[in-house]
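Typical record was shown:
=====
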Amino acid sequence: MPQSRDEVGQASLLDAWVPPPEAGQPFGCFATSYTFDSVFFEEECLGRFVGLRAESSEASRSLEWIIECEEKFSQIKAVALVDKANCRGRRSPRWDLVCARSEKKSGIMHAKLSLLIWARHMRLIVASANLTQSGYRQNREIFLALEANPDLPLDKQAWDDALEYLRVLSMLGGAANYAPIKRVDELLEEAEERLQSYSKTAQTPDRIISFHGLGPDLGPDRPSSLFQSIKSAWPDKCGVVRDAFIVSPFFDPNNHAAQKTIASMWGMMAERGEVRISLSAPLECDKEKGNMVMVPSAWSVSPRDSGTVQFLGVKENDEEAKERRSLHAKAISLENDYWMLTTVGSANMTASGTGIGQFPNWEATVSVLIQKDTDRDAAKQVEAAWQTIEGELIEAPIFPEELKMENDDSSVEGEALPMAFEYALYRKVGEEGSIEVSLRDGAPAKWELKESDGGDRVIGETEWRKSGSPIAPLTWTFPLKTSAAPSGFEVAWQGSNGTAWLPVCAADGRDLPPPEELRNIPLELLIEILTTARPLAMTAAAFLRRTEKSNLKDLHLDPHQRVSVRDHLIPKMRRASAAIAALREKLSQPAVNVESLEWRLNGPFGAAALLSAVEREWKNPEENRFFTAELCLELSGIRPAEHIGYLSKKKQSAKICSFLREQIQKNRSTLNDETSDMVSYTERAFAEAEKQMEEME
């Protein structure tokens, strides 16, 4: 839809990724797409979802951007499921890219769904647009967003059907024990629990919304085609359908292939009386040939005398805006004088897109049933949306002899990933990184993995066979030269035309090292970050810039600490105690998920980082234990609050106590037979902390 919010029925699709007021912290998202732009998805979609402030460009990523991405993305689960033909791209290792493939013969994974979960709100975006720059910023697209929170009317059945379908789609990404699919399962479980909670107080919506998920072999209880789904959403009380409006950028390639689709569409219409089908399709204008509508000519023939067909052409170029705006919306509207059923989503008007072909696609659509005279606002909104995409009436259209096969707005050149390559996972072994690759039978000959963008060869079939386990299925692990996690590997093999892409996902987010800029953060920076109200990324970036050429060991924010007493315990503890108090305040605030709490405890600016910086810079074992004891004593006094949509008090307490007990045990193991007043105090502090932890739990 147009990039404007000034008119009814128009909105920016990117705005749908922005949380509504009072939504709370982001929990996670699961998005699906046919074509894909990883940089666009990360910067524009995920960036809005988590509320990134810093700006980035592909050419130059600012220090603020790097730090803020690490902060925000570390605290969510985010998974993108993309069709095997287009699943590739550079990205942060903090979110997962999963390749959608199927052993069965089927069409493409063409569904465009985005499930967004915040602490106090959920949104499901059902769209025609791929997760690409052209899909979200240039094309004529259409979408509908389902909203859910305790204060809104709830379309419970539509939500249930959508979540069930997302589970089915997730199975295209790998086995249930594959780490990213586990994260998807956790996201869907969270969504189901929230829906169950919301349904206890939610009102019934004024209009009926139905979700339709299509795909091969979904079971006898599910409609096998889009036409059956729409028919089930049009109840008998609505009477017969007199008008049908269709918007589609793609149709079957020729008259023969289109016959089944045409017959199915006319089967939706009233059998008696006047009926009309209006088709909006791409328009090509030629001064000599005339106006060519990109539809098979068979659509122009009505199977009944009382039926008429009209064509509306949509030009690719927007003359007013002076830009290319290709038609990419997919929608069907059934109407009579009293009722309107509008269906939007990913399905083109083709045999594969509607599910009636030999190789049906995976498609997702949603229908809204509106009674025109009682729900005029909704009818007005739908009609306004149609006006932006339906085009101009073509009185004497001409038709092409053959159309392009169903495709999408952009495709990445290259090979699809062979089924033999199940997955690649990043794991941390000690201080180094490693890659676990799962291989199956049928791997192509002389395959090899290369670094992205035509980089060096990493490993291949030769090393695999030398490992002594050449029989698939096989999980094979090899070390990386660095601890950094790659986005993926180019896969080449004998006879391939180009390369495929094997995405790399983290086995566990805790394995991922922070960016180089955030390793071994100096104590003074941690103190400043924890005690300031300024955004973390802004504070950290400013500090790192101004100390780039300085000796960090000699730098102190407090001018009084530049005198010789700065190495004494009391001045050092005075500086650090403010950080401990600030850390307690942050940990007392509710955490939306385990990842968020993990960031506060073990992230590069968390409790563990503060302890490491003290150990690294103070270099006195007794003083380090004293500081640890003070931190454990302070944090053991936390009493997490219970908030709807956030982690339970019990889960937060258990995580914090586990962290503190680990620190206490580690420090006690270094005491040996030492005896001193400081050691005695340290042991008393640890004992008091343990007592308070029992009360916390």
